[in-house]
Amino acid sequence: MTFWIVQALNGLQLSMLLFLLSIGLTVIFGLMHFVNLAHGALYTLGAYAAVSAVAATGTYWGGFVFAPLAVAMAGVVLYTGLIRRMRKAGPMSQVLVTFGLIFVFLDLMRITWGDLALSIAEPTLFTGRSELLGVAYPTYRLFIIGLGLAVMLGLWVLLSRTQIGAMIRAGVDNDQMAACLGINVERLFFIVFCIGCALAGLAGAVAAPVLSVTPDMGTQILIPTLIVVVIGGLGSLKGAIAGSLMVGFIQTFGAVLAPQLASVSIYALLAAVLIFRPAGLFPAKA
Amino acid sequence: MLDIEDLHTGYGETRVIFGLTLKAAAGRVLAILGRNGAGKTTTMKAVMGLLPASQGKIRIDGQDIAGRRTFDIARSGIGYVPETRDIFPSLTVRENLELAARLAPRNSAWTLDRVITFFPNLANRLSNGGNELSGGEQQMLAIARALLTNPKLLLLDEPTEGLAPIIVRQIHEKLAELKREGMTMVLVEQNFGFATALADDVHIIGRGRTAWQGTSQEIRTRTDVQRQWLGV
Ligand SMILES: Nc1ncnc2c1ncn2[C@@H]1O[C@H](COP(=O)(O)OP(=O)(O)OP(=O)(O)O)[C@@H](O)[C@H]1O
Ligand SMILES: [Mg+2]
């Protein structure tokens, strides 16, 4: 029993990281049909920004606050310098350019922080283990789960209960009609892009104490994140939640129950979903 | 009010409109007629900035809006009711309306309460999803939404397409009421009777440009023009 609870919590924790990464990607895609493959690199940048900020401030929370801001700033630069110009370029060019960006980021981070794995310590508030459902589980990982749930709730309120949320949903449904009602969809996209970047940065900062921070940590998580987006259905919060949970759990349980199949299990899931629900489980557009 | 001069537009390589000139006067209703595929919707889209004008001018109250971005054109006072209605399916009826009312100043002519009084059918649909409406309700919502932007010019692309006769009559009454209030409208229609009953002026598009223009009264007697350009 303990085994199952621990693995379920591990799965949940991975799901939350995947959620923080995929939600930005999926809403950006839903809103503007823009594919940003460099999203994983922004996650790495967040982890490194956290490492440096922790070193500078001496506290975990320095990184926790600084990383999302730094990555959002990187998003502003990326958007104004490159993405805005590429909006009408078509998916092929976008994929190629953002794919190229992965390597640019990779090398920039190598040059700045080196190749060796770095890490940061858990915040003192959340060190050690806590008792939950009869198992002693690392407190910091529980914090990740709680944070993920809080972000889900926050985004749900934002999207379903506020005017800007209604604007985003309208833009995902039909950006041309939204513009015909006087909505500046381009600016909306910019705001959503920056929020997505900040969440990727947050994911990097939160992952830094549990994973080792290396230049290629973003490339490793990019594929599962893309699979979450495709399984969940492009552009939807519900889809990102469902997709993250499925991928997180299958990856975690696959690794312990059938290690020899672990690497293929999420692809099998992807294939199954694409066969039965080609648009994903909860596509934003019916 | 709306003044189009030598407009050229189309879809990429496909030229659809080449040299259209058209005027819609303030306080009047202009019907744009033409056969299937004549380019009526294309013209509307060019006015809204959804299609680029490769040549020509589009003026609203004397200001050239060709080349401006769609949200900017909408904010300059044009309300658009597209042929496909384009209700946002993931928004409730109320959210669809509130989104349109967002930029209107406090003391505007059209408020949420007023459009609901104007289209009572929408009153008990407010919490329904945009994807849960009948065709007639969708059309009413599309018009209500355009009104909530408090436009000085209303563009309507085939508001009666695919609707039951009783709904068509309702829509006609509502548009006639708007006309009596002095709303300037440009109406694209396939329904000749509907269009000429409502419009003051008629503009026929054929072969990508102006084929005929005159008043509603004139076109009713010009069976030759009707036969040549409308296939009536
Ligand atoms: N997205 C598009 N891409 C390429 N060509 C198009 C597109 N939409 C319309 N066309 C072509 O442009 C021409 C004009 O179309 P448009 O929709 O403006 O006609 P319309 O006058 O509104 O017709 P209807 O009365 O059927 O609505 C048609 O020949 C059509 O095939
Ligand atoms: Mg049309």
Note down, in words, how this protein is organized.
The complex is a heterodimer of chains A (286) and B (232). Chain A has helices at 2-32, 39-57, 60-86, 91-113, 139-161, 163-173, 175-180, 185-207, 217-232, 237-257, 262-276; strands at residues 129-132, 135-138. With 286 residues, chain A is an all-alpha fold. Chain A has a domain at 21-217. The longest helix of chain A is centred in the N-terminal third of the chain and has 31 residues, at 2-32. Chain B is α/β, with parallel strands linked by helices and 232 residues long. Chain B has two domains: 1-77 and 152-232, P-loop containing nucleotide triphosphate hydrolases (Rossmann fold, 3-Layer(aba) Sandwich), CATH 3.40.50; 83-149, no CATH class. Chain B has nine helices and ten strands. Chain B has helices at 40-47, 70-75, 93-101, 112-118, 135-148, 165-180, 192-198, 216-221, 223-230, and strands at residues 2-11, 14-24, 29-33, 53-60, 63-64, 78-81, 153-157, 184-188, 201-206, 209-215. In chain B, helix 3 packs parallel to helix 5 (135-148) and helix 4 runs antiparallel to helix 5. The A-B interface holds A 163, 166-167, 169-170, 172-174, 176-186, 284-286 and B 48-50, 69-71, 74-75, 80, 82, 86, 88-91, 95, 98-100, 102-103, 131, 145, 149. The site of adenosine-5'-triphosphate (ATP) has 13 residues of chain B, from strand 2 and helix 1.
Short description, anyone?
The complex is a heterodimer of chains A (286) and B (232). With 286 residues, chain A is an all-alpha fold. Chain A has helices at 2-32, 39-57, 60-86, 91-113, 139-161, 163-173, 175-180, 185-207, 217-232, 237-257, 262-276, and strands spanning 129-132, 135-138.
Q: Note the quaternary state here.
A: heterodimer
CATH architecture of the largest domain in chain B: 3-Layer(aba) Sandwich
Helix content of chain B: 25-40%
Strand order of the largest sheet of chain B: 6-7-8-3-9-10
The low-pLDDT segments of chain A are: none
Tell me the span between the first and last alpha carbons of chain A.
41 Å
- The percentage of residues in β strands of chain A lies in under 5%
Question: What is the overall pLDDT average of chain A?
Answer: 92
**How many structural domains does the protein architecture of chain B include?**
2
Query: Which consecutive residue ranges of chain B, at least 5 long each, have pLDDT under 50?
Result: none
Provide the CATH topology of the largest domain in chain B. Rossmann fold
Which whole number gives the mean pLDDT of chain B? 93
**What is the CATH H-level superfamily of the largest domain in chain B?**
P-loop containing nucleotide triphosphate hydrolases
Note the total helix count of chain A.
Answer: 11
- Given helix and strand content, the structural type of chain A is mainly alpha
